[in-house]
Amino acid sequence: MDLVTTPVNGTRKYRSTVRAAQAESTRHQLLTAAWTLFTEQGYAATTVTQVAAAAGTSVDTLYASIGRKPVLMRAVVESAISGTDEAIPALQRDYVKRVRAAQDAATKLELYASSIAAISPRTAPIFQALRDAARTDADCAALDAEISTRRATNMRSFAGELLETGQLRPELTDDRVGDIIWATAGAEHYTQLVVGRGWSADQFGDYLLELWSSLFLAAHP
User: Fold this and answer.
1) Which residue, among 190, 44, 202, has the nearest Cα to 125 in the 3D structure?
2) 112: closest CA among 211, 208, 216, 220?
3) Terminus of the chain with fewer CB atoms < 10 Å: N or C?
4) ∠ CA 181-90-143 to the nearest 5 degrees?
């Protein structure tokens, strides 16, 4: 009698693919739920039980997929920055690649301003939640300081690229340009104008471009 069997390796690969997809979906749901709860009711008031319930899963699954609450906050922050469910180093982000590839300072500023407008709706609320949590939680305070330092470092690097074009005002330095971009592109400034004054994210991006162009470019139209 002939026996028909299913290839073992193929079955295992299929099951592994399905499990990986399920794990990715669960992680995405947990990060989305945590972002919503952290930004709406605050880090301290949010429990891992609430996050798991909002994601339609269990606390044990949350711990296995991401980790405890401080790790969850870090994962949410990194996800907001990257626009994916995983952390992506700055130089590997698509918009950073486009900015670095641009040849002139005006185009670099335009690309970066539009990128800030695109990511701020997801980053500004969680940065504000992190800043609030940092007042009473040591883990969040350390993460907030790390993110602030990373931003400042990235801004100074961007400033250096702008200055290398030779198209900025000659008296400007990396530190001066970097600090201005760090402050004006920050979550606090975005929240003041978009939440406080009713601007749209696109209007905020246009404002950044006009501000930076007038402050930095040697020949601003």
Assistant:
1) 190
2) 208
3) N
4) 80
